[in-house]
Design brief:
Radius of gyration: 20 Å
Distance between the termini: 36 Å
Number of strands: 15
Largest sheet: 7 strands, parallel
Helix content: 25-40%
Structural class: alpha/beta
Number of helices: 11
Order of helices and strands: EHEHEHEHEEEHEHEEHEEHEEHEHH
Length: 355
């Protein structure tokens, strides 16, 4: 199978590339090597095509040649991060939204009708909540006044008790809370429109908190686990926002790559619907504070500092149901967080940006 892999030099893309090649697939590797992810130095190797997906619509040139004979595109390239300021909007809209739209149009022109899209849990915004007495609820964004007062929970609209988190299924409403989240929703919507209009097939994989060896450090792409590790390696206590009780699902990068391989098979074997989405998660929710504690205990570093601070756009709890991915893709995570996070404490990371 001939797979065009965008973002192939990135943290997740490199793992996808490795697993595809290990089973004998031909991988056409594309990456723009943007400084935000790779630093100012470009580490292009001989089989990497240094191209920007926003240029894929050119009628002639390298992009057109690369798409010829491709069976499926695995689209990992994206600008990622918290996206918490208005200044972030153009970068996310350009790389993620425009880039995806241009790539989809180019695929249609070259007769490529199968796509696996890297999406994210951020499309859900807040996760799923329920009150024991008043049932399921969809809380609004938490107010600054409550957060400033140290009240980090979402509350029942009827009795004001703290709501309990529940697993989020793929048919939950989409409620982006940041510019990055809005761009991931847009990517999904463009892909759905393309699949319908072009008679094509696509799968969106909604990654939860991805971690593992090769994770970048000290960049917007780092993720909370790598940020905690960087603090510990510098002899500082990991700084945990809010009260550390935020529930997340941490999924190992090897499992995420395997989910992509399964999705590639499903979408090329025409066993997929025109558009399907799946949570890619471990199925084992973990409090953010526990992640910091595991890393500190394993490395022998200082215990975490719970700051009580918060970031605008952050959500309280978002953890996913893995059931649909298991039932339809055959994907079940093999590395549990309590094992993987301990191993991650000493796993090799990518160098800091610019080094």
């Amino acid at each position: 199978m001939r797979v065009l892999l965008t973002g192939s030099s990135g943290f997740i893309g490199a793992q996808v590339d490795e697993q595809l090649k290990a089973r004998g697939d031909e991988v056409v590797r594309v990456d723009a090597l943007i400084p935000e992810a790779h630093g100012p130095h470009r580490y292009a190797d001989e089989d990497l095509h240094v191209l920007d997906v926003r240029d894929a619509g050119q009628d002639s040139g390298e992009w057109a040649d690369l798409l010829d004979g491709v069976d499926v595109v695995c689209h990992q390239a994206a600008m990622v991060g918290a996206g918490v300021t208005v200044a972030d909007l153009p970068s996310y809209a350009g790389h993620n939204d425009l880039g995806t739209a241009v790539l989809l149009a180019a695929m249609h022109e070259r007769g490529v009708d199968a796509l696996v899209l890297a999406s994210s849990m951020v499309v859900y915004g807040e996760g799923r909540y329920a009150c024991q007495e008043h049932g399921e609820q969809q809380p609004p964004a938490r107010s600054r006044a409550a957060l400033d007062g140290g009240d980090f929970e979402n509350h029942c609209a009827h009795c004001c008790r703290a709501l309990a988190w529940e697993l989020v299924p793929e048919d939950a409403r989409l409620d982006p809370r940041s510019s990055y989240a809005a761009s991931k929703v847009a990517q999904e919507h463009y892909t759905l429109a393309w699949a319908r209009q072009a008679g094509a097939r696509a799968i969106g994989l909604r990654y939860h908190n991805v971690y593992g060896p090769g994770m970048p450090r000290d960049t917007p792409y780092s993720g909370v686990a790598a940020i905690f590790r960087s603090s510990l390696e510098a002899g500082r206590a990991p700084r945990v926002f809010e009260d550390g009780g935020q529930m997340r699902d941490f999924v190992h990068v090897h499992d995420v790559a395997r989910a992509n391989v399964l999705a590639i098979d499903a979408v090329t074997q025409r066993s997929a619907e025109s558009w399907s989405t799946y949570n890619v998660c471990s199925g084992t929710p973990v409090p953010i504070l526990r992640v910091a504690e595991l890393l500190a205990e394993t490395s022998g570093g200082p215990q975490p500092e719970v700051s009580g601070d918060y970031r605008s756009g952050d959500v309280r709890h978002v953890v996913a149901s893995p059931r649909l991915a298991t039932a339809e893709l055959g994907f079940t995570a093999q590395i549990a967080p309590d094992q993987g996070i301990v191993e991650f404490a000493t796993a090799p990371l990518r160098p800091s940006v610019g080094k």
